[in-house]
Amino acid sequence: MEDVGKQPTIRARWLGKELQELRKAADVEVQAVAQFLGKQRAVVSRFERGEFPISIDELPGLLDLYRVRDLKTRANLLKLAQEVTQRGWADGHGIGSGLANFIWLEENAQRMLILSTVVVPGLIQTPDYARTLFEVRTDEEDAEQANRWLETRQIRGSLIQDPGGPIVRVLFLETVLDHHVGGNTVMSGQISHLIDTAGLPQVELRALPRGVWKHIGLSVETGFTLFEMRNDWPTVVATDSPAGTVYAESPDIDWIAEGFESLWNDEALNEVQSIDLLKAKLKDVTR
Fold this sequence. Notes:
Layout (H helix, E strand, L loop, with lengths): L9 H16 L4 H8 L3 H9 L9 H7 L5 H15 L11 H12 E8 L10 H11 L5 H15 L9 E7 L10 H15 L4 E6 L5 H4 L5 E7 L6 E6 L2 E6 L4 H14 L3 H15 L2
Parallel strand pairs: 1-2, 2-3
Antiparallel strand pairs: 1-4, 4-5, 5-6
């Protein structure tokens, strides 16, 4: 169940927003909903803000009140309500709600578009590469937390091995490979993993060669992950900032998807050229 008083998760906010829109479309006042559910007005408002989950048992009656007859719409909302009230493995993994949001998006996306300009994307990092990055920003007192994050990273990596998982397009700057994170041994393992990952049926990987600059026009400094969701849910983009991950939703982010496709089609090396680049880099670090 969602933690009351904490920042609502993306899934809770989506459900609340959908219910609010359906209520308004049906011209039903908040007070009428409160009376129907036998709750206070404030509770209904918290439902609609995503601050408190509505009971699965109460939702069908509420949809009847809002005159929602479409079976697909009802099924999608019931599934989303179940996602809100059930704790996934990430929610109880001691990693914070921000990353739990990100993992939920990964698990429910039908396609992911990833642009990385600084480091190898987390979803396809090796344990050694990820551990080296974590050691830079943690101290001995945070060792337990770092271990939880590394375990989480490995579980997330298994997503792309699942034939039922999302289609994943990865676009990275060639200069990402110049940062020999952890030294040649760690980096050679990471590059080998990238080559292997590119061979998975649901993964497409391309490199942006040196000199490409159009990603700067997207105001992208560290990259982003764009999630095209299942069940007619909104498309979401996640970008990192010093204050944490920032999320935005369609239609406000349509220009980002268009920018990615432009980079992918017009600026990036094709898949064969990208693998050749990776193999050349692998030779460099194993000399």
